[in-house]
Write a structure and sequence with these properties.
single chain, 5-stranded parallel beta sheet, 6-stranded parallel beta sheet, mainly beta
Length: about 150
């Protein structure tokens, strides 16, 4: 398990965090300064080898269920500009498109990636191996790369 920035991370009652999980809230990264928050609600299950990383804000509601190897991030190594792409990825300035908000009773399948600036509504299901690049409405099923809504109640 890797834990960075514990002062910026809160975990609710009854939440289970499996082995190999990385929780990283970066206050300082390569000379940049941030005010990150990661808030995980009550009764969540974060399965093996998940990575939740913030320089901005990640808010997770109650009773999230993840599969294994899930990534939830509000940041990336730089922007897709010619100048930054000439730098090694780890030397690029850390960049956030915005916070991530995940509602209550959400299920993220194995290998799901939730990208910066995304909101996933209450009760949503995101299928395995999906990449969430846009908001997913409450009570919907989404899948694919990029994830698209397949069904909405």
């Amino acid at each position: 398990m890797r834990l960075e920035g514990l002062g910026h991370i809160s975990v609710g009652d009854g939440t289970y965090i499996a082995s190999g999980v990385q929780l990283t809230a970066w206050e300082n990264r390569k000379g940049q300064h941030f005010t990150p928050t990661i808030a995980i609600g009550n009764g969540c299950t974060i399965r093996e080898n998940c990575h939740i990383t913030a320089v901005n804000s990640i808010s997770i509601g109650n009773h999230l269920l993840t599969g294994t190897n899930v990534l939830i991030t509000d940041n990336s190594h730089g922007e897709a500009t010619y100048e930054q792409m000439q730098l090694p990825p780890d030397s690029r300035p850390v960049y956030s498109k915005g916070p991530v908000v995940i509602g209550n009773n959400v299920w993220l399948g194995n290998n799901v990636c939730v990208m910066p600036g995304v909101t996933i509504g209450d009760g949503a299901i995101v299928g395995a191996n999906s990449v969430v690049t846009h908001d997913i409405p409450a009570y919907s099923v989404a899948a694919g790369i990029p994830a698209k809504v397949m069904k909405q109640l």
